[in-house]
Amino acid sequence: MISATGTQCNPANAEIFFAAQKVDEAVDLCLDCPVMFPCRDLARAEGHVYGVWGGETPDERRAWLVENHPDPEVRAEAARETARIERERERSIIRKREHRAYLRIVAAQAGVALNKPVDAESDGPTIQQVRSRQLATIARQMRAAGADMDEIAEELGATRRTIQRYMSAKYDNIAA
Predict the structure, then answer these.
(1) pTM of the entire structure?
(2) What structural domains does the chain harbor?
(3) Where does the record place the 4Fe-4S Wbl-type domain (predicted)?
(4) Predicted confidence (pLDDT) per residue in 142-161, tens digit
């Protein structure tokens, strides 16, 4: 980001350009910027692999760096980062597939239809409640064994706040 007079990437807006969830917003801000192309060229020349620079996303820039950067070390680093990101995307897909398979098993064990909404008059738990109850039980067991909240959150793939909710009495009343 080259911060020039009249640009949107001033220090007050800088976080937008490095937030993964706001890539589209950052690219849109770049489209009207008077220094869009020099900014992009600077990021390429310096080998920046994070953030939106000159309307170019990190993935687009890494791909360009792997192919075109004159410094072989920068090309190698961009290639390693691209491979790491791709491995993480693959792991994420695998985790999502495993989670769906797990939910189907839990639903079958609980007698809950996974793909159908639970009737409003139903006394039984929903699949989400069953899953939350199981995670709450696991979280409490881990906590009793001495694990800290961050370890539990990482192991269960949840946020720290979710784990804190699991530790509350709310999940005691959900039928397993």
Answers:
(1) 0.45
(2) 11-76 (no CATH), 111-173 (1.10.10)
(3) 8-63
(4) 888 888 888 888 888 888 88
